[in-house]
Write a structure and sequence with these properties.
- This is DUF2960 domain-containing protein.
- This protein has helices at 26-34, 39-51, 55-69, and strands at 3-9, 12-18, 71-77.
- Strand 1 and strand 2 (12-18) form a beta hairpin.
- By secondary structure, it is an alpha+beta fold.
- Helix 2 (39-51) runs antiparallel to helix 3 (55-69).
- It has one domain.
Length: 79
């Protein structure tokens, strides 16, 4: 079964295919589909991961940064 991602980017709902061999996360896949450069985000993500003691800090950072970039409602869907 093919995996697909549904997300909203700048108030437009979009659907793309997802392959585990190309991307590590949903967020990387949607950023690549929209041509968004994640180099600064990935560097800051590494710092948050080093200094945080739980998964909540990482999740909150990721969600707030992607919201700032214009993404929302990123989720897997089934055919």
């Amino acid at each position: 079964m093919a995996r697909q991602i549904r997300y909203t980017y700048n108030n437009v709902v979009k659907t793309i295919g997802f392959a585990n061999d190309r991307f590590n996360s949903l967020q990387e896949a949607v950023a690549a589909a929209e041509g968004v450069d994640l180099s600064n985000y990935l560097a800051m993500e590494a710092q948050v991961l080093q200094h945080s003691k739980g998964k909540n800090a990482m999740r909150e950072f990721r969600d707030s940064e992607f919201k700032r970039m214009g993404f929302s409602n990123i989720e897997f869907i089934k055919d």
